[in-house]
Automatic annotation (TrEMBL):
GO cellular component: cytoplasm
Coiled coil: none
Enzyme Commission code(s) on record: 6.1.1.2
Family: Belongs to the class-I aminoacyl-tRNA synthetase family.
Pfam families associated with the record: tRNA-synt_1b
UniProt keyword Protein biosynthesis, yes or no: yes
Protein's UniProt keywords contain Aminoacyl-tRNA synthetase: yes
Keywords, sorted A to Z: Aminoacyl-tRNA synthetase, ATP-binding, Ligase, Nucleotide-binding, Protein biosynthesis
GO molecular function: ATP binding; tryptophan-tRNA ligase activity
Origin species: Candidatus Yonathbacteria bacterium RIFCSPLOWO2_01_FULL_47_33b
Protein name: Tryptophan--tRNA ligase
Gene3D superfamilies per record: HUPs, Tyrosyl-Transfer RNA Synthetase
CDD domains noted in UniProt: TrpRS_core
UniProt-listed InterPro entries: aa-tRNA-synth_Ic, Rossmann-like_a/b/a_fold, Trp-tRNA-ligase, Trp-tRNA_synthetase
Length: 330
């Protein structure tokens, strides 16, 4: 019984600043909901992965910011341990090397995220080798912590294939070392740009609502967002409905939204009413978030102590896994 799980739910988040409301609905909220189901969970900020695009100092700077964001969005430190990946940098790096030995160059060259990146950069010959090792480093994270289930978005599925293949091959060679992690695909709701075309994204700031946006500006952005002609359901309207319902869980408000939308579909002129409601919902949500976040960052020792505890859990798991790995390779 070597290959025991240590963590039920495990995932990594990127240290990027400026989360949008679409990031919240697509990535943060599903994680917060999974955590509520009571599993023992561990979440980390993948600052070493983000060295693919950032200087170490930049990656590091955003770590605490993103932790503050996630805590203010509902991640509960009593249920979830949180650590920064680089606080166990030695273990992650060493494990990455050991696993890289069992990964072929051709397998990594076939990973679609790498292929797309190379295709879409002007100078593919300058792409760095860390990009290439990305899935192997993910395997190091997950296998070190002996994770049972890994919730990830669709974009990470190909990486998870490499992780599971590595765990199986390593076991086949050295014995029952790693428990095999299950992939839990998080269904991601698509929130569109307020400008009407494409996904809401940071790169089109006018069509995106940021969690840090000024509340008066948010209300204006929503009022000038794309609307649907009476009687017609559009992708953009559907996205607004999703946005409203995801941000406000009150069933009475959901009924109100449904009745406004059925009036709209009957041809009545109610888009103004709907937008007012949407603006109220978004502004209320952001106000609560911003208040909670300000509270959280007021005392820096609060986040320090959460990260310290998380790091000690992650380190203990990683060291005991490495002991097992070393002894199985003798
Ligand atoms: N690659 C993930 C992302 O870009 C982050 C990540 C790194 C991760 N290591 C992981 C996710 C291990 C789950 C498990 O979002």
């Amino acid at each position: 019984m070597k290959a025991e799980y240590k963590v039920e739910l495990y995932t990594g988040i990127r240290p990027t600043g400026d989360l949008t409301i679409a990031n919240y609905i697509g990535a943060v909220k599903p994680l917060v909901e999974l955590q509520k189901q009571g599993a023992k969970s561990l979440v980390f900020v993948a600052d070493m992965h983000s060295l693919t695009d950032n200087e170490p100092a930049v990656a590091n700077k955003f770590c605490r910011e993103v932790v503050a964001d996630y805590l203010a969005l509902g991640l509960d430190p009593n249920k979830t341990n949180i650590y920064i990946q680089s606080s166990i940098a030695y273990q992650v790096s060493y494990m990455t090397m050991l696993l890289a030995r069992h990964t072929s160059v051709s397998e990594l060259l076939r990973v679609p995220t790498l292929k797309d990146k190379l295709k879409n950069t002007e100078h593919p010959e300058t792409a760095n080798a860390l990009l290439f090792l990305y899935p192997v480093m993910m395997a190091a994270d997950i296998l070190l912590q002996r994770a049972k289930s890994v919730p990830v978005g669709e974009d990470q599925l190909a990486h998870m294939e490499v992780v599971r293949r590595l765990a199986r091959d390593f076991n086949a060679r050295y014995g029952d070392v790693f428990p095999i992690p299950a992939v839990q695909q998080v269904k991601s709701l698509r929130i569109l740009s307020l400008k009407g075309t494409g996904k809401m994204s940071k790169s089109v700031p006018g069509g995106a609502i940021f969690l840090t946006d000024d509340l008066a500006k948010v209300a204006k952005k929503i009022k000038s967002a794309e609307t649907a002609t009476e009687g017609v359901m559009t992708d953009s309207l559907q996205s607004h409905i999703t946005l409203a319902k995801e941000l406000c869980g009150d069933p009475a408000v959901h009924l109100n939204i449904d009745s406004i939308i059925s009036e709209h579909l009957e041809g009545k002129q109610v888009m103004g009413v709907f937008k007012d409601l949407l603006a109220t919902i978004v502004v209320d949500f952001l106000r609560q978030f911003q208040t909670r976040r300000a509270e959280i960052v007021k005392d820096p020792s609060y986040i320090d102590s959460i990260l310290k505890e998380g790091a000690s859990v992650a380190l203990a798991n990683a060291e005991s896994t490495l002991d097992l790995v070393r002894s199985s390779m003798k």
